[in-house]
Design brief:
eight-stranded mixed β-barrel; 27 strands; disordered N terminus; about 45% helix
Amino acid sequence: MGGNQPQRQAIGGREEARESVPAIVRPGLSSDQSRRPGENPIDTTGVTRRSEGQRRKTATRNQSVSKEAGWDAEYVLPHNWWVTGLAIAAMMPLAALASMSLPSVLIAATALASTAISLFSRKIAPWERAAKAKALAPMILAWISILIPVAGHAVVLVSWGMNGGLNWPWVVAGIISSNVMCIVLLRHRTYQQLACLWLSWGIIAIGFGSFDAVAALIAAGVFITLVGRYQIEQDRVDMVAAQARERERNRAEDILRDYEETGQGWFWETDRRGLLTYLSPSVIAVLKRPPSAILGKPFIDLFDLNDDNRDGERTLTFHLSARSSFQELGTRAVAPGEERWWSVSGRPAYDSFQNFVGFRGSGTDLTEKKRSAENVNRLAQYDSLTGLANRFQMQQTLEKILKAPLEQHRECSVFLLDLDRFKHVNDTLGHPAGDALLKQVADRLTRSVGKQGRVGRLGGDEFEVIIHGRSERQQLAQLAHEIIHALSQPYSIEGQRVVIGASIGIAVAPANGETNESLVRNSDLALYAAKDGGRGRYHFYSNDLHSAAEERSKVEEDLRDAIANGSLELFYQPVVCSHDDTIAGFEALLRWNHPTRGWLSPSKFIHIAEDTGLISAIGEWAIRTACNDLAQWPENIRCAVNVSPVQFSNPQLPSIITNAVARSGIAPSRLELEITESVFLNDDEGTDAMFTALKRVGVRLALDDFGTGYSSLGYLKKAPFDKIKIDQSFVRGATEPGSRNGAIITSITSLAKALGMDTTAEGVETLDELDLVRKLGCSHVQGYIYSKAVNTTAIARLLASGPQMKAQGYRSARGPRQTMLRKVMLETGGQFYNAKIRNIGLGGAMIEGLWNVPPGTTFNVAFSASKIVSAVSIWSEDDRMGVQFSEPLDLEADGLPRNEPVGIPHV
């Protein structure tokens, strides 16, 4: 019993492994399961495929077969030991025939008892297996079930032979037959086999009762014992090898099952007719059909055979019909409700007689890989925000048109679009709102163009439209007008009403360019011309646009030279205290005396400096120059310098200012930095840190153009401003009846006073505007009412004349005037005079031809025989006078231009 324990443990481990991993067969487990003719083929007829339920049944059946084959040797009694009872029962009539005699009652009773005990072993064997480990009672009964039938069988034969009824050769033959049966039935149970041999031959030796019989028994027993020991060792070696083979098979089984269950790959097999005999459960689950609807059907039915996949279908069909191997063939699966792609590999299989038995192979899911590739291709071809074609795809489209084989197919038109006031939306509402606006713009643009052309987004707020084929100029103009009209309609963004515009540049191929680069460049020049013309309009390319581009390039080059040569100048406009007209300071304004073009307005070159990055160098120079000039003025005078958002974002700005202040020797508080609201667009820790650093330097901070940009009051709580500058757009027209500008100015001054800040009203030009801003509480005034910006020499004379300035200008603002030269007839007091109108507005005009006319003189002004207007003179100087109409003129209705100058032809 003890010698069986290692064997019990080893076999037990193997049984446990078998119960946890069902034994199934898959294609691809062995390299020699699928071979070409001449490669030592094997029989594949036993290879079958089963469902999960069939696998469990197969595993149980395999386990039973293995146990009956002797691999359950940890138990004393085999399942089939009851067969010995049948052998004993069959032996009795055979022995009677051989001896021609009947056995005695005792012999018959012994044979019957042995047979009964053998048959009863059918109950004892399951009991032994069901009992707990090392249970003594089942083991004793199991040994009794083995030994008693063997002993009874030997006793019957020996007794029958000793009584003379059965010859001894038949007795020996019966004993040998019993030994062979024991050896077969007790396979791998060496101790039981030895016990049976000893017992049966021992009874014979006892029956003879001679010394030679006992000696022969002992000699044979020693030999049997030695053979038994060898058999035990051989069984142990065989068991270890079998366990190793089982572990290897189970490991491969587990790996392949895990591979299938993860969905990374699957296996398939067909018969010689191409019908599926096996398909991995993971694929059956994807197809959403029962196994019975898939197995036994053609393998080709798993794939989509429509025209879109015709090439893949022919390739797969070719390999299956030609019985040739194929690797990683991409095919589209017939998966309901989704698009799924597989990569399939396979090779033909042959039996031992070189007969084709079908295909075996594997597959992997390409769906995610294909989707990823499509997504990458989409990102490379389309704009991720709007879904329109991107710059790369638009370039490819245009190049394809321009390189068409036939000349008439190379005709096309290119629209370049740029959104007007889009930056303002980003600045005020933020970039997420800007993205939402771009999506709506893309939708409107696509609807406007329709099928006439292709729409793409080049980046930012730039769009492109390509119209293929010849188009009349009038048709292009109409389309451009429709696009501008559509894009200019109000948008709803985050609950707010947003209005923008669009400018369009148009170039036509091949007239305006025969290559992609030239055509896009020329349409870009046309776009710049549309913007310069006032935005919200379209412009066709013309050759003179190149000169404008060259002029811009020349201005940029000259500006770089001006910075290097020190040709830029600062002019200063006074800032006056509103309550006593004393000079509080100046604002530094940039001026450029071009060597050939004379004085240039900042509007002519500042935007170029911003686009080219020169604004930083100009800003640093302006701070140093202003500090040096400020050092020459009285200590109570301040100077304000504009700081661009680019300068403000420069971490070196505090150091630049500190060095400029230190070199000039002025108090830091005399320098005032004017900062626009756009610096708060990226309202982060860097912005707060910059404000803290500037205040640590000691300079004053002014919020410039308040109310025209970001327009949020939130930043006033934390930004350390010393002054708020009211933009001139609020001052202009504030004195007109019904204007709300006065209320806005009042709210700003009240807010500034509550926060301890000064206020400066910009752009004050008339006396009534000055009176209004004083009345509304502005602490400082800046504008032409006191002085325009002048150079340092004029500032020195101004400061030398005293601290106060006198306001000089018109009493009230007059409407816009148009220059003209037109003959009219004047009538006053019955006298008629010929005169000329030099300029005219809605409410009045300047008339030339009468000398020293007293103010208040009433005239009838005859523009024509049918148009006579009453007017009164309000001023007179030499032969010129200003008149005010009794009622405003409708210039357009009267045939007089309202928005365009009137030229000489009207004389």
